[in-house]
Design the sequence.
């Protein structure tokens, strides 16, 4: 039984139209081993706990933003304009009432009342760099630790973008990713019209307060870091540490800025994945989990106050594993039978 609340966002079954199942948000309250299906009428791509008010939980769905104000026991659709897919959230570090949400197709939304109501920000105006079967998604958001108006976003499939005015305008910071994509080992084309696809396949982005000017981007081809605001990107060469380099999630520990966690798998559709940890702000990595998943690890969940609590979620079989003793032991917290495609996890 987990000693914290656990939330899982479930979306549709890519490539398996005959296997429609339950979607939405599942919640498991602290001390219980039973999951409750708390949002059932919309797919969920992102679930996020407010960092300073854990009674507030956001869910990014195929129908805008849903929110809980009772620690995930119940959710309601917010005053959100239109039926838009929401894929990411960021709560401002200096103002707990200011929340950003990233959408698909590329768009940014802002709330000034802790997620109760939302307005769309000006269109980021990103170029279309790869023609994909789905609209581009704002997958993750990150904020500069000492310059709160500076935001970064990972885009699937469009690289990354940057704002220096709190999301009012954005610039494309993908040019150097495309330069890297010309290297033979970084070319990848699966479903688009370009071999740049793999380097533009952005999944997650993170900034450590231990190295505030370095931004780490997780893409299909690995982890890449910029130290100059996205003008140039360097390969962090994960292959030195892991045989899995498909980067799906990266998070900075809220309690130790030098500790990072990265979800690494074989590919978007795979039967394996591993969780790696760095304790030196990304210089070196070691495998952290002690489990065998049977699907790509999509999400890493870190507890805001307790560094010993780390959870991972893998797609296809509703697999969730967690440790509450800093990685020594791991326990399964799988979703009910038949609930499959996990996109996002949160613990708090």
Sequence:
């Amino acid at each position: 039984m987990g000693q914290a609340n656990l939330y899982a966002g479930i979306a549709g079954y890519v490539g398996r139209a005959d296997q429609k199942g339950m979607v939405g948000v599942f919640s498991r309250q602290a001390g219980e081993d039973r999951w409750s299906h708390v949002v059932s009428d919309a797919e969920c791509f992102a679930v996020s706990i407010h960092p300073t008010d854990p009674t507030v939980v956001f869910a990014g769905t195929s129908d805008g933003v849903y929110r809980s104000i009772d620690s995930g026991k119940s959710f309601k659709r917010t005053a959100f304009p239109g039926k838009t897919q929401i894929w990411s959230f960021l709560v401002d570090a200096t103002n707990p009432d200011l929340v950003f949400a990233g959408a698909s197709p590329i768009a940014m939304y802002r709330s000034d009342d802790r997620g109760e109501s939302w307005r769309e920000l000006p269109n980021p105006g990103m170029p279309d760099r790869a023609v994909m079967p789905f609209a581009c998604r704002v997958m993750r958001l990150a904020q500069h630790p000492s310059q709160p108006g500076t935001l970064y976003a990972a885009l699937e499939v469009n690289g990354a973008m940057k704002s220096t005015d709190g999301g009012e305008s954005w610039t494309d910071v993908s040019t150097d990713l495309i330069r890297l994509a010309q290297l033979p080992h970084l070319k990848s084309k699966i479903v688009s019209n370009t071999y740049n696809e793999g380097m533009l396949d952005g999944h997650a982005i993170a900034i450590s307060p231990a190295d505030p000017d370095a931004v780490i981007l997780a893409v299909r081809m690995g982890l890449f870091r910029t130290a100059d605001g996205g003008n140039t990107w360097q390969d962090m060469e994960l292959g030195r540490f892991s045989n899995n380099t498909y980067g799906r999630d990266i998070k900075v520990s809220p309690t130790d800025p030098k500790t990072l966690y990265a979800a690494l798998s074989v590919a978007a559709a795979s039967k394996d994945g591993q969780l790696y940890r760095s304790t030196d702000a990304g210089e070196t990595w070691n495998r952290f989990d002690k489990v065998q998943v049977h699907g790509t690890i999509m999400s890493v969940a870190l507890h805001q106050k307790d560094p010993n609590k780390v959870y991972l979620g893998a797609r296809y079989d509703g697999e969730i594993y967690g440790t509450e003793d800093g990685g020594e032991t791991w326990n399964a917290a799988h979703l009910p039978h038949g609930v499959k495609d996990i996109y996002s996890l949160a613990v708090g």
Observations:
- The helical segments are 175-180, 197-200.
- Residues 47 and 271 are 23 Å apart (CA to CA).
